[in-house]
Amino acid sequence: MSAPTSFADLPSYDELPCKSAYWPYPPGSAREGAGMPGLCTPAYIADTAAREIRSGKRIGLTMPAQEMSHPFFGRQKFDIDVHHIAHFGVFDDVITFNPQGGSQWDGFRHHGMPTGLISGNTAEANRVPKDDEYVWYGGTTEKEIATPGNPRIGISYLADHGIIGRGVLFDYVDYASLHGISYSCYERYEVPLAHLLDMVGEYNLDLRPGDIFCLRIGAVTEYRTHTPASWAAAADIPPQTVVSAGLQTSEVLLRWIWDNHFCALVSDALAVEAFPPSDPSTALHHVCLAGWGIPLGELFDLDELASECKRTGRYSFFFNSVPFNVVGGVSTLPNAVAIL
Question: In a designed cystine with 231, which of 70, 150, 163, 194 is the match (CB 3.0 to 4.6 A)?
Fold first, then answer.
């Protein structure tokens, strides 16, 4: 099977030789490092911009970097030191933070998959693997990622051309309100595929190959209703006990994601998928990141975008995100903007 150069070249889910891993590009190549967003060709971007940019209104999708004062999973807090340099009248700043402490892209180095998923041994995949029983996108090994200076599947490859295309917003907050569904984003709640399919019709969502799927469940809104002190207590709980709302993972959902050929998945949720995933063999962090080269965007600020989409009745837009250009980087702030 030849390496695809457009979304039209991708096989269907049923045609995938291995449902959990599709690695068509040369190991260590820039094309491998770009993953699914690399199929957004110049012609595709030009056509998408012409179709989607109408008013020119721009809406930022990234939380202020220091807003999440107590990041989850024990991650480092944001710190900024603004200071004079050389002489008065000139300032520099030194910023220390974890790019996954707020709005973030999970790059392909972030999460491996159990090797059992490659062999099709789901029982083996569901067992907690040892360190040497994981593999990353393209077959990248833990040793390659841990080797200083090795750039393979690092975030810089996504920075070279950006994660840019047509975004489509699924505003589950609005849908849940209309249908009498209640939940907390910081308790385990699963958004089922049936609700997404219902939203496609109810909100007249026109899905196209290469779309950037954006799901708003209200996690950023809910975060802002609590005090820093309450989040300080939450941040102290062990990482393995963190729970959050998100997509209900299943093979049916994976089939839908693949056959729609989304090039990225974005949410304001803590982990895109409900966390922890109920079945590791269908976890998005395993299959989308390590298996298919689909980056995951988490804790995006989609609130203002949702208001504008509801006001206009149009839920697609031009999506522009330029990651940090850090060779060998694992993650990045999104630096994302929706242009309508």
Answer: 70
Query: Alpha-carbon distance 289 to 113, whole Å?
Result: 9
pTM over 0.90: yes
- Residue from 125, 226, 155 nearest 184 by CA: 226
Residues 63-81: tens digit of each pLDDT: 999 988 888 888 888 999 9
Q: What is the DSSP letter of 147?
A: S
Cα torsion 134, 138, 141, 147: sign: negative
Alpha-carbon span 216 to 299, nearest angstrom:
9
- Domains in the chain, CATH or no CATH each: 7-111+149-339 (3.50.30.50)
Q: Print the SS3 string covering 186-212.
A: CCCCEECHHHHHHHHHHCCCCCCCCCE
Q: Which helix (H) or strand (E) holds 93?
A: strand 87-96
Task: Say what angle helices 251-260 and 193-202 make with each other, to 10 degrees.
Answer: 40
Do 328 and 150 contact (CB within 8 A), yes or no? Answer: yes
